[in-house]
From TrEMBL:
<feature type="domain" description="TRUD">
    <location>
        <begin position="150"/>
        <end position="332"/>
    </location>
</feature>
<dbReference type="InterPro" id="IPR042214">
    <property type="entry name" value="TruD_catalytic"/>
</dbReference>
<dbReference type="GO" id="GO:0160150">
    <property type="term" value="F:tRNA pseudouridine(13) synthase activity"/>
</dbReference>
<dbReference type="InterPro" id="IPR050170">
    <property type="entry name" value="TruD_pseudoU_synthase"/>
</dbReference>
<dbReference type="InterPro" id="IPR011760">
    <property type="entry name" value="PsdUridine_synth_TruD_insert"/>
</dbReference>
<comment type="function">
    <text>Responsible for synthesis of pseudouridine from uracil-13 in transfer RNAs.</text>
</comment>
<dbReference type="InterPro" id="IPR020103">
    <property type="entry name" value="PsdUridine_synth_cat_dom_sf"/>
</dbReference>
<keyword id="KW-0819">tRNA processing</keyword>
<keyword id="KW-0413">Isomerase</keyword>
<dbReference type="InterPro" id="IPR001656">
    <property type="entry name" value="PsdUridine_synth_TruD"/>
</dbReference>
<comment type="similarity">
    <text>Belongs to the pseudouridine synthase TruD family.</text>
</comment>
<protein>
    <recommendedName>
        <fullName>tRNA pseudouridine synthase D</fullName>
        <ecNumber>5.4.99.27</ecNumber>
    </recommendedName>
</protein>
<feature type="active site" description="Nucleophile">
    <location>
        <position position="75"/>
    </location>
</feature>
<dbReference type="Pfam" id="PF01142">
    <property type="entry name" value="TruD"/>
</dbReference>
<dbReference type="InterPro" id="IPR043165">
    <property type="entry name" value="TruD_insert_sf"/>
</dbReference>
Amino acid sequence: MKLIYPLNIQNEFVFNSSPRDFTVEEIPLYEFTGEGEHLILKVRKKELTTWEMIDIISGYVGIKRKEIGYAGLKDKHAMTIQSISLPAKFEEKIAAFEHPQIKILEVTKHNNKIRVGHLKGNRFQIRLKKVLGLQKDKLDSGLKWIKANGVPNYFGNQRFGTDGTNWIDGKKILEGTLKIRDKKTHEFLIGSYQSYLFNQWLSKRMELNLMLEKFSEEETETFMSLPQGSLKGSKKQPQFYKLLQGDLMMHYPYGRLFEVEDIQEEAERFMSKDIAPTGLVPGSKTKRASGVARMIESQFDEEMKLYGARRYAWIQVSEIKGKYVEEKAHYELSFTLPKGSYATNVLDVLRGSALEY
């Protein structure tokens, strides 16, 4: 099923994921102290994965990859800026580093190694092409909707590989029909399957949200095979993403996990961007939803030895700006997302369509 967002738009534009049209800048979790045992490099790269960039730098200074710290993995087909750390004793050697695809923009020091997840979010700059006349107005309208409502927090295509089938291998590993000896590859493929299940669940919830836009609660219950009365009061919630009894929420953009009790009260807090609903990334030692929310969630839950998590189902987009360059038919777009979120979710809302898996 192709899901259409309630923006009354179907917008066509061209986006090329390339260093010329796509820039990502990491926002550090904290300020670096300027002193300590770790050298902090603010690095700009293009047409390289973060791992490829780390391999080049670690090879140059003569250390193992694991001695270099990083906060997150950045797109290959983009101009990306991020911070990495390495032992401060290599300060003099790194001063002479040169590479056609890597530029060190700043050097400082810190008392800790950068760890995975040590970032607030990412700032994106995107150039859309072949934007003509009415399309510009549609993009303006879409940005206004996103600013007010936010976007679904699907995992991006990067999780699923070039041909989008990594999750299939992850499923085979769990079924015992595929063996991968390398531990990191093994965990990565299962992680891809976890991401796939989350996306499938979120698509189902998006389907429910969209049905409630067009049909009554009773009709939606019938279409979705839910118990009679289970959606009572959901349609009058002010926000697009409707909360269900038993949903697990978290304070936004981070905080404590808790279960929905008074739906209308929590819907108002969600609308004010104080809290947000979460979805299940299946795995062990992870809290499950209850009630009607669990009825939907359980369809996309599987036992696996990897740790699971609760992931925000819906995120807010901040610092949104759009500029139309009429003579080039370009639309220059910038925005900030919390860590772990993908720019493709914003672009899919602007196109007027949801991701398909």
